[in-house]
Amino acid sequence: MFENLSDKLDRAFKTLKGQGKITEINVAETLKEVRKALLDADVNYKVAKQFTDTVKEKALGENVLIAVSPGQLMVKIVHDELVKLMGGDATDINIKANPSVILMSGLQGSGKTTLSGKLASYLKTKKQKQVLLVACDVYRPAAIDQLKVVGEQIGVEVYSEPENKNPVQIALNAITKAKEQNKNVVIVDTAGRLAVDEEMMLEIERIKKAVQPHDTLFVVDSMTGQDAVNTAKAFNDRINFDGVVLTKLDGDTRGGAALSIRTVVDKPIKFVGTGEKMDALDVFHPSRMADRILGMGDIVTLVEKAQEQFDEKEAAELQRKFAKNQFNFNDFLSQLQQIKKMGNIKDLMGMIPGVGKAIKDVDIDNNAFKSIEAIIQSMTKKEREQPDLINGTRKKRIADGSGTSIQDVNKLIKQFDDMRKMMKMMQGGNMKNMMRNMQGMRR
Which CATH class is domain 302-442? Predict the structure, then answer.
């Protein structure tokens, strides 16, 4: 995500390295590269020009402090302007009513149905809401079945009327049912088209007028680049949506849509899809995204993801076990699985300041923990609980059962023992130390 843009901006700022002061000449040289980097990332031309003009005006109006180099000052100015460009502050979804109705819109293929499920999962798990998904795509083959599969995955009820071809009536009936069942949120998944057309726009307008949604979201595929911005403008002109959701932001995308949409349609980006799993949906924070684009990491999001998976009681219990040398392979496997739930390993490491650039060309397999899990799962219950029981014969059986070698089993056991000794010595087995050691074991 934004790797190419990050690299090119970094090269642009090097123009100012070693310069004693900011001048119109060196600023112009730097901003020429910045503008080129933005255009290569598929940022709208007018947006890119306006952005660099604003940065130039601010840079030439700044006095460089003795403690701050021109390069550092330019990075700060660009960072602040990127934050403004993407909307400034994060914008939450409107779910104050009971039930709150959320209307999903977008082209076919943008990931709208899957995103509806991700949003339902987010509201259910992080906002503790009772959600009802509504299947209003009466045209696409298997659209209703797809939403039902998604609903089943996340444990959310899906309302559908397979024989009814009137999406307005289906949506109204679903809201009535939601009120009867005391549901907090109704998410209406509407039909998409392969391109913007009059029939599609009229239908989504009728649905919006009938259900009076509290939040209308436009779902757009980030990988469509500048077309995403054009489509967003076409939809906004007709239905005046409240916010944008960018899907596939984890893919091989130049990311310009995220930097352009806010300016072109004057609507906030509320969420970004960052993977295929149902929990791969993040609130969009412009400041954090600017940090990541400029290679500053995103430690706040990393901490938030960790807090979602680890609770204080569990941390305290692990600390007690480390202190008494009772930490076993069951505990270790549990921690591994919780770290995996936090998301893609390379993405997580990229959130650590300074690490993103260092690992950008490193291939980090997200299945790298599988061999460790296979070894532990090939142990008997008693072996997991009492690792000291594992002798040569047991190691051979474990290696055969896990499809690994005795050397792999020995390596894991040695690293596990080293970690136990170190953590007992520290007597502070908190999750931060746990995560650091597990990452070391993966190498």
Answer: mainly alpha
